Amino acid sequence: MSERAAPFYCPYCGDEDLHPSEEGHGSWECRACSRAFRLKFLGLLSPGATGSAPSPSPSAVPSASDGGTP
Fold first, then answer.
1. Is the dihedral of CA 14, 8, 38, 53 positive or negative?
2. Nearest Cα to 18, choosing from 33, 28, 26, 4?
3. Distance (Å, rounded) from C-alpha 28 to C-alpha 38?
4. What's the CA gap between 29 and 66, in Å, rounded?
5. How far is Cα 1 from Cα 12, in angstroms, rounded to an integer?
6. Nearest to 38 by CA among 16, 15, 7, 69
7. Shortest CA distance to 68 belongs to which of 32, 29, 23, 36?
8. DSSP secondary-structure letter at 40?
9. Are strands 18-20 and 35-38 parallel, antiparallel or unpaired?
10. One pLDDT digit (tens) per residue for the chain, 70 residues
């Protein structure tokens, strides 16, 4: 299996100056806006699913503590 893909852009400012964080697997730091974030794969949708996307887990929703809107 190949190495996991890295994000191309910061989800907050759109800059490309991203570096892996020491916080653990899937954690990244944006040097442009000084924010840290974590990416997590939630799973696959079932074939033929036509409804809305599954609601994100509470840890996936940006909060005031990580620079998002509360």
1. positive
2. 28
3. 6
4. 11
5. 30
6. 7
7. 36
8. -
9. unpaired
10. 456 778 999 999 999 999 999 998 899 999 999 999 998 888 888 888 776 666 655 555 555 555 665 4
